[in-house]
Fold these 2 entries.
Entry 1:
Amino acid sequence: MNIGFIGLGNMGGPMATNLAKAGHVVTGFDTADVSVEGVETVGSAAEAAADQDIVITMLPNGQILRAVADQIIPSMRAGAVFLDCSTVDVESARHVAEAADQADLLALDAPVSGGIGGAQGGTLTFMVGGSDAAFLKAKPLFEIMGQKAVHCGPSGNGQAAKICNNMILGATMIATCEAFALADKLGLDRQSMFDVVSTSSGYSWSMNAYCPAPGVGPQSPADNGYKPGFAADLMLKDLRLSQQAAEAADADTPMGQRAMELYARFVEEEDGAGRDFSAMLPRFEGRGRG
Ligand code: NAD
């Protein structure tokens, strides 16, 4: 296929390279001066999108996505697929899909989980919103860039699935970290805490697969000085998107709200910026109730 790829950053760069390695012709654009293996870069988003079978975007936020959509939709050919893999607000995803639809394009929102390692290794999970026809066209590309693509329903539903998942993740990571910090104060060693909880009803992905305590459980960013991994800043972004969506849909999400507030304080007022989101554990360590 002929593919346009816009946003060649930490995630987009390796995703584009994997498509090129699989034999697709990839033409890319990024506002930063980047060079990406296997990708021919051109001077504008519109140029990268012109006459392609599929155009993929991997951008920082919904505002930038909307601006890029305005630039590329007029140059895309009818029947082509506009595949956005960025994590953005549900409203922007639906807005862009509608604009694409009006221009006779097929639109998909397909945010990912799996992080930079997943992008490099081609093992991402895609959560996809859009029509069956669009999903089928993009499926071979999901299989190259990832190991799983779940079709979640119409446009916007991929973003909805992503932020609901990460709202659970943010809240369970905080709960796991505060429980470890309480266990410390009660004199319970961390290995015993892990051995019990990871096989009891308090278990979760945060405890079992990504344990925030160094030296305990599987290898995780905690064993690497809390270098991300999944940065607390990105968790904060996703929690904010979840609360923006909850506000718009009038959904009561007190745990998500509290998780957002805690990550905001951690990233913006404490030392959380640039650290893994599991660094909530050293944050809670030693803190009292005051
Ligand atoms: P990044 O900042 O490394 O990459 C974004 C790229 O977009 C940059 O290279 C930037 O120069 C480019 N860009 C910005 N404005 C542009 C424009 N108008 N036209 C063209 N290019 C433009 O970010 P990333 O880590 O690659 O993340 C991309 C998206 O993936 C985000 O929405 C993020 O939330 C999501 N995501 C990231 C991770 C992760 O672990 N990094 C995991 C899951 C999802």
Note: The two ends are 59 Å apart (CA to CA).
Entry 2:
Amino acid sequence: MHLVIVGLGLIGASFAAAVKKAGFGGSITAVVRSQSSGVTAVERALVDHYSLDIRDAVKTADMVMLAVPMLAMRGQLTDMAPTLPTHTIVTDVGSVKSYFAEQALAALTHPERIVPAHPIAGRERSGMDAADETLFEKRRVIVTPLPETAAANLDAVSALWAMTGAVLETLDVEHHDRVLAHTSHVPHVLAFALVDALVKQPEAEEIFRYTAGGFRDFSRLAASDPVMWSDICRTNPEAILKSLDQFDLHLQHIRSAIEIGDGDTLERTFERARVARSQYNDVQS
Ligand code: NAP
């Protein structure tokens, strides 16, 4: 099997490292934007080859995995389409599945080869230097096959993810984007908003000097890559806005309770949240 990974950042490089560690028998080519990234990736034995030219790299690919920011996917799909062999499976790791599915269906001629997937694993650091061969161990990977996706192609992508130690689940594309808007996209937006709002306060320096506990935990998400999260917001706006509106209503409810000193409402709300959080404390970001 010749696997081509487009984009060797945190997720692409971690995937390459994980399957190699698990004894992947095929060869891996990384499509990168700079020669120095390619040379480093080969030196570190993350991949066997590198290419700066996606059209050339995919000519002999059995599977192509896109691991670039969401808005870069369209260009990569269009660029690879003319030289992509008819049997090649095309998968991705993007955080928004409907956008990838739409772009892949528009660019590629064989929809049965398209297998969208999303590892629910990551961290605030990005780039190849942050790669970790254990990143996906015991973490969920959601595959979101299209109605047209061939079962054999779904199995091939699932088998590679299983090699990384991930636990596979299946959702449909829209369901994935709705759920992830609530559990991942909106929490990141809130963290970015909170930290940005504090930065604008006149006493910002003092606020950040005393960061500890709650603020540190909550604001961790705001250390994430701005391009990646801007792309996620721009490719999943409907679900994110819906989730934000629901949250806004709830926040207003809590705000009113604080304003009028309604301790019962505050305690009930916090208790419901505490119980829910401890029941689902195995849910990963
Ligand atoms: P990353 O570490 O920033 O890596 C992105 C890679 O894409 C880098 O190799 C970068 O190349 C390349 N790239 C960036 N912009 C590009 C462009 N315009 N055209 C071509 N290549 C480009 O990002 P990541 O965390 O691996 O994320 C990759 C994908 O995984 C994203 O779609 C993201 O939504 C998804 N994802 C991320 C996480 C997470 O927690 N990080 C979790 C699950 C899924 P250079 O090295 O040359 O900059």
Note: The domain at 2-171 is CATH 3.40.50.720 (Rossmann fold).
